[in-house]
TrEMBL record, chains A, B:
Domain Alcohol dehydrogenase-like C-terminal: 94-222
Species of the source: Gossypium arboreum
InterPro entries: ADH-like_C, GroES-like_sf, MDR_fam, NAD(P)-bd_dom_sf
PANTHER family on file: 2-ALKENAL REDUCTASE (NADP(+)-DEPENDENT)-LIKE, PROSTAGLANDIN REDUCTASE
Name of the protein this chain belongs to: Alcohol dehydrogenase-like C-terminal domain-containing protein
Domain of life: Eukaryota
Amino acid sequence: MHVITAFGVGRVMRSKDEKYSEGDIVLNAFFPVAEYCVVPSSVLIRKIDPEAGIRLPEYLSCLGVPGFAAWVGIEVLGEAKPGSNAFISAAAGGVGMVAGQLAKLKGCRVIGSTGSDAKVRLLKEEFGYDDAFNYNKETDFDAALSKYFPNGIDIYLENVGGKMLEAVLNHVNPHARIPVCGMISQYNQIWTEREGVRNLLNIVGKEARMEGFLVSSYLDRFADFTVEMEDYLKQGKISSKIKIYEGIQSFVESLGSLFSSSKFGKVVIEVNKPR
Amino acid sequence: MHVITAFGVGRVMRSKDEKYSEGDIVLNAFFPVAEYCVVPSSVLIRKIDPEAGIRLPEYLSCLGVPGFAAWVGIEVLGEAKPGSNAFISAAAGGVGMVAGQLAKLKGCRVIGSTGSDAKVRLLKEEFGYDDAFNYNKETDFDAALSKYFPNGIDIYLENVGGKMLEAVLNHVNPHARIPVCGMISQYNQIWTEREGVRNLLNIVGKEARMEGFLVSSYLDRFADFTVEMEDYLKQGKISSKIKIYEGIQSFVESLGSLFSSSKFGKVVIEVNKPR
């Protein structure tokens, strides 16, 4: 049997480990997608304090994998600093919405690209982006970036690949950082049929750095991240949009929503209503 | 008047700066391509000791820009360590020949690609490459890399771009480093007509790092490099092939040779015979 696992928040029903008691709320990176499960206590990340003033789904969003990916991309690999010009693709997704807010908190000028006008509004009005554009309308990416980045791009959080990356490489500043979180435009194709990026030569003259990353390689920084992010959340400096699907039967629909342009923010399944 | 400048070695004819005297041999990053010239002493890098046992053209090869580029690529950005699998493109060029030898000295397994069978022999017999191939014969780069890198590629010193880079990205190991020194296959084309690289998505799963560099950004390391490289040269641990063109009238021919595949190693013009 193949079990699909996910980052999850759960309530302890019964425990043989004295560190955990019935009723504890726990965070785990490898919960099976299931209503009930048995897991070894060694895989639990930590207990969650339900009185901390942070709503539970946030532990899967700002404080979970997407928030951590945003933090690694913007703070570790992106080296965000005051005055940097940051561009976030897939900006209204789970990673992007946190990344833009983190970059703003570090003093960057932040522009996002996303797939609908409603999301453009969300980025500007709720997540504090300096500006944002709908890539389905501004189809000449090169012209769009000329308009939004008159002083060039210092940080590009890469989530889409293909033509957008190519356009970005025409606008990078010296020593630009391009943390590569994903390339969603490239996932559903045989690689030889994908759009090639033709201007990689630009990374020589601009001394740009492109670096792929998986959050699993940065787990030694997870505690630092948690302290910083909890602080932002408690101070109301970062917020997150979470789309909650109800019941385990919504799994396939929720997964599919990741690949349409329909979703906002982080997708979470609420398997059981909290009692 | 536009003056073409180059890294050069010269003999002082007359000096108004007491640090330099007639007859001193000096190294400079910005000599005009000329038989005689007047330069401010502030731009001279240093005096060369002609009794140090290092032939003068080597100060433009192993100890000059190509050697420094190789050192930055292999030791700084490539993080070469014992057991790393290193691939050097344009391996018989000025940078490549030094890069391969440096990688060997750091304990790497080193394979090179180059444009003729004679250069393949040179790499294996004179520069200590573990193996090398002629890219004009092994035209299926993907198959060639499967053969030469059964355990994948940890370091790729990128000098060519295009199809070779694409093939490499199918063979990179986790956390591979790709210092990008140049992309000579891409120089003579309008960018929209260049070959696109279609498999950049691989850098996410492999967490690969691609980083363009110019030696001018690493000048704070030039002294460290010089000490290390002079030591290698005096111990005979590194050698270099230098093609010397005679007389300033050979400038255009020597420049053209960089783009033809005909040259071996570093190209130097001997403007005046040493007296």
